[in-house]
Amino acid sequence: MIAIQRLKSSAPDFDQQLAALLAFDRVQDPQIDTIVAAILEDVKRRGDVAVLEYTRRFDHIEASSVAQLEITTDEMQRALKELPAVQRSALELAARRVRNYHEKQLAQSWSYADDDGTRLGQQVTALDRVGIYVPGGKAAYPSSVLMNTLPTKIAGVGEIIMVVPTPEGKKNLLVLAAAALCGVDRAFAIGGAQAIGALAYGTPTIPQVDKIVGPGNAYVAAAKRRVFGMVGIDMIAGPSEILIVCDGSTDPDWIAMDMFSQAEHDEMAQAILLSPDTQFIEQVAVSISRLLPEMPRCEVIAASLAKRGALIQVRDLDEACDIVNRIAPEHLELSVTNPEALLTKIRHAGAIFLGRYTSEALGDYCAGPNHVLPTSRTARFSSPLGVYDFQKRSSVIGVSEQGAQKLGRVAVTLADGEGLSAHARAAELRFKR
Question: What is the pLDDT of residues 341-379, one digit of tens each?
């Protein structure tokens, strides 16, 4: 049998066991942080020259200017045209579903008037320019282009700048096609901390953005953490997670493969099953052992399951929901007969997949909702990436003459209480004489 923890919620030390299982050290590696700090400072100081040097060193691309690293819109459109028909059709369908879902998130400005004629409201506007980081080292992720770019477009962002590493100069056709399909304005074949620095500070060739979104390796994450404040960021993502609640009636092979689907990301990914059915848990364990050798990334999956995976027996589905809320998972599958009955009990989860046929993998690519989700229990206080991340709100206040008399006296009282006489005087000057 494959090594994976077995826990019981009825065990006297279950709380401690669960805490140990969920523990993940988010502290930045000091060595990585030192390297990233130096790269960012160099890019800030030397701009294009530094970007070229780091691209040459890390991606082994020779270029005499950053302009040579720009991926033109013509090149992106050619990639879309050259895609095999099956791939293009799949990409277009996924894009259409993601677009349709996110259009419903678009916020609108609003206002209302008090009895005295004072107008209050909220003006919603889009960010001017957003940077999209697309991983391109060990693998290519066109789905990342869809999920990060389409909400940006729907929000009305003025310009989208994409950066994607292309080691040895090898560009991924699907990534470029996705960029064309989503309407990326400009793209550059650069990656790593130097790309984050270029987007955050701007260079003579790469424009400064207002927000940077998109996943990356530890160096990219460290760079995003450091430039936050200079620009906005989406989140600092931890390892991928899946938590499955099952009543014991789903095919155990399905559950095992759904656990694999996140465990294959990396050794620190987490896959957990909660079920009240002891026999079913054993069936899933058998499925894991039988199916794992067939998987191309079996070593990564095995390491993930051994380090951070678990099969947990719970008393009932109500207790399972309580544990779900404690874990606050990135992905939650409710693989039960009546998932809607459990849905109302879930308070903390990044994305919730209802029913036996809703595999998490569909959410990664084409269901419609965003696959950029809070990890490491941050679903307790944060949400999936969405259109709202690329819109901002300005308060609108228009006080009438009549309102200035009533509100002014309230402001004077409170300002005097705080010892801020200029505040009080500014309100008093507007009183009728």
Answer: 999 999 999 999 999 999 999 999 999 999 999 999 999
- On the question of pLDDT at 164 being above 80, the answer is yes
Nearest by Cα to 190 from 128, 129, 130, 137: 137
Domain assignment present for residue 52? The answer is yes
Nearest by Cα to 141 from 280, 240, 208 = 240
- 15 and 42 assigned to the same domain: no
Q: Is 331 a catalytic residue?
A: yes
pLDDT digits (tens, 9 = 90+) for 74-90: 999 999 999 999 999 99
Residues 21 and 36 occupy one common structural domain: no
Residues 408 and 392: beta-carbon distance below 8 Å: no
Is residue 307 included in any domain, yes or no?
yes
**268 in the same domain as 344:** yes
Residues 42 and 75 in one domain: yes
Q: Please spell the DSSP secondary structure of 224-293, one letter per residue.
A: HHHHBTTBEES----S-EEEEEE-S-S-HHHHHHHHHHHHTT-TT-EEEEEES-HHHHHHHHHHHHHHGG
Q: Is 229 left (phi over 0), alpha (psi -120 to 50) or beta?
A: left
Distance separating alpha carbons of residues 410 and 117, to the nearest angstrom: 17
Q: Which of 102, 241, 264, 330 is catalytic?
A: 330
Strand partners, 242: 271, 331
- Please tell me the total count of domains within the chain: 3
User: How do residues 99-109 score in pLDDT, each as one tens digit?
Assistant: 999 999 999 99
Domain around 424: 399-428
Q: In terms of Cα–Cα distance, which of 342, 330, 286 is closest to 311? A: 286
23 and 129 Cβ atoms separated by less than 8 Å: no
Q: Band the pLDDT of 432: cuts 50, 70, 90.
A: confident
Asked whether 326 and 307 are in contact (CB, 8 A), the reply is no
Say whether pLDDT at 206 is over 70.
yes
How many other β-carbons are positioned within 10 Å of the β-carbon of residue 100? 12
| 17 and 35 fall within a common domain | no
Same domain for 104 and 216? yes
Q: What is the mean pLDDT of residues 314-329?
A: 98
Catalytic residue among 241, 331, 333, 371: 331
* pLDDT confidence bin for 26, thresholds 50/70/90: low
pLDDT digits 0-9 by tens, 100-148: 999 999 999 999 999 999 999 999 999 999 999 999 866 779 999 999 9
Spatial separation of the C-alpha atoms in residues 100 and 120, rounded to whole Å? 31
pTM higher than 0.70: yes
